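Hi P.,

Sorry for the delay on this. The queue was packed all week, but I finally got your sequence through. Input first:
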Amino acid sequence: MNPKALLFVRTSKKNQQVERQISDLSEVAKKENYEVVQIIEEKISGSTKNENRKGICELLAYIENHPVDYVLTTEVSRLGRSPFETHKIVEALTQKNIPIYFHSYHIVTLIKDEKGQYKRNPLAMILFHILSEFAFVEKEILVERINSGLEQARRNGKALGRKVGSVETKNDQLKKYSKLIPDIKAGISLNKCMKIHSVSKNTVIKLKRMLVTETH
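Then the structure:
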């Protein structure tokens, strides 16, 4: 029986594509004769806490209820950009004896000893700690650069934000959040809608009001 592999892919923005990640990891699985039993896609900031990430929650729930031999992902930052949160993910899989394969570095978190028992891969663990910290710092630098750029633009007298007169219409809003609307109509809680669709509290409340006015 071929080893069972779960593919985990993530992007920070909804308009970014995950097909390349899936393709690369599928090639790895094919080469190693792994059976891909699940592909989990996530489009959310890697700085979000694990409990608020639908993909990570799905990953952890899946390994609790299904046999998985490997989790494949492209790089450490796909698991997240918070060292504390990513360490928790690695530990959860380590406790289940499930190695994580990071494709960009061709390395796994667990290896087998001479008795065939899994043990931590020292090189992978050192690399993981370094890269998780780097992913966090990289995110902080990006935020700092954005804020610096905005401040410079303000000093230069540039108008920031949406252009005057470009306010989205009600129909624009309903179309933009078309996937959220059925959940609101089904009575799903505000917090759950926020988590599922990665939207703000104000967005859910605003759409609820729009839908109420539509029915009156």
